């Protein structure tokens, strides 16, 4: 085996090991990916399988003080003043400000004769996972969290997503505060996959 092939094989094995060891982490602190690292992470989204090349994934990222400005706008929104919504302000605060870099994810699905909605949504999920994996491979940590119900609606309005966009949650990026991640108990492949034979 040539030196360069050996190097490629060795680094591929390293990447697969890193993929298999990946854990989500929460809370997240500094450092977050800088602009150059974030660009690579976003570029990884664009490597998702994308039937019809529709680019259905959308993201807006928020760093540092801008997270607090976003939070204030969310909390000040008229829809966030009901008794029910007021009880969720603490949860919204934790969701939007616990990680130093927050990507707000959405799917922009379009009518297409060959690409149904579910394929476009799956493509967005793949894009998000590519970003999470890229961030981890670059040495950062991440946590994909949801923006249920009203929070998704508030973020959509405050951040200027399109009214028809589907909110897909937050991809929180930074560095794990707790350094010792417990290895995850993952199901063995036999649990969810089997060989089909005629
Ligand atoms: C779209 C999506 C939204 C999620 N939202 C939450 C959430 O709001 N809260 C939560 O505890 N886990 C949420 N999770 C699960 C975590 O991101 C994470 O996968 C889980 O804690 C397991 O950790 P692991 O990735 O290390 O296996 C969500 C996962 C997905 C795919």
UniProtKB/TrEMBL annotation:
Keyword terms of this UniProt record: Flavoprotein, FMN, NAD, NADP, Oxidoreductase
Keyword Flavoprotein: yes
Domain of life: Bacteria
Boundaries of every Nitroreductase domain copy: 21-174
PANTHER family, per database record: NAD(P)H NITROREDUCTASE YDJA-RELATED
Amino acids binding FMN: 22-24, 51, 144-146
Name of this chain's protein: Putative NAD(P)H nitroreductase
Note accompanying the cofactor annotation: Binds 1 FMN per subunit.
Pfam family for this entry, one: Nitroreductase
Cofactor: FMN
Family as reported in the entry's similarity comment: Belongs to the nitroreductase family.
Listed GO MF terms: oxidoreductase activity
Documented EC number(s): 1.-.-.-
Listed InterPro entries: NAD(P)H_nitroreductase (IPR052530), Nitroreductase (IPR029479), Nitroreductase-like (IPR000415), YdjA-like (IPR026021)
EC class (word): oxidoreductase
